[in-house]
Design brief:
By secondary structure, this protein is mainly α. The model has no long low-confidence stretch (mean pLDDT 92).
Length: 175
């Protein structure tokens, strides 16, 4: 049974990495002088900057942006699951005396679902802009949803790296 659980985790890891690569490939179709990729669009913050990006994209590039934002919904499911399960696996192997690490890990594990919801809202707002929404607050709202999402995910990844490094013998069973 453990073999099946591990294979599912490795499959989730592989799928997450494949989607990251796919998003990077899609990014190549939307890079212009005004936009260095989908991340720049997510963090445009102000209306004029987002409009400048829109104006530099060809109709074909706009289709790639729309596809990227839609494809990102699959990525949300993958990265939220991957990070949450990774933290869960770490927490399960930590000594019970490491209360603070277990509590922080548990909070970060559940926070991934908030990050996923924020990412979904951010994508919706970015699609609205792409489709011509003229509300000057929309890019700012997308920026804040993206920033909070990146902070939550970044803290979780930092937790995984630091905890897995400090407790690698317990977690991986190796020196």
């Amino acid at each position: 049974m453990n073999f099946i659980k591990n294979n599912k985790y490795y499959l989730l890891t592989a799928l997450t990495l494949v989607v990251i690569v796919a998003i990077k490939i899609i990014d190549a179709y939307i890079i212009t002088d005004a936009c260095s990729g989908i991340g720049a669009y997510e963090l445009a913050k102000d209306f004029d900057k987002s409009q400048q990006m829109l104006n530099t994209w060809t109709p074909n590039a706009k289709l790639w942006v729309a596809f990227d934002l839609g494809f990102d919904y699959l990525f949300i499911l993958l990265y939220v699951s991957f990070i949450a399960i990774s933290i869960y696996k770490i927490i399960q192997k930590l000594p019970a005396t490491r209360h603070l690490l277990i509590i922080v890990g548990t909070i970060l594990m559940y926070a991934q679902f908030i990050a996923g919801i924020f990412d979904g809202i951010e994508n919706y707002l970015l699609l609205k802009i792409l489709l011509g929404d003229q509300n000057t607050n929309t890019p700012n709202n997308a920026f804040w949803f993206a920033s909070i999402k990146f902070a939550i995910v970044g803290l979780a990844l930092l937790y995984i790296i630091v905890t897995a490094t400090l407790y690698r013998k317990l977690i991986f069973g190796k020196k």
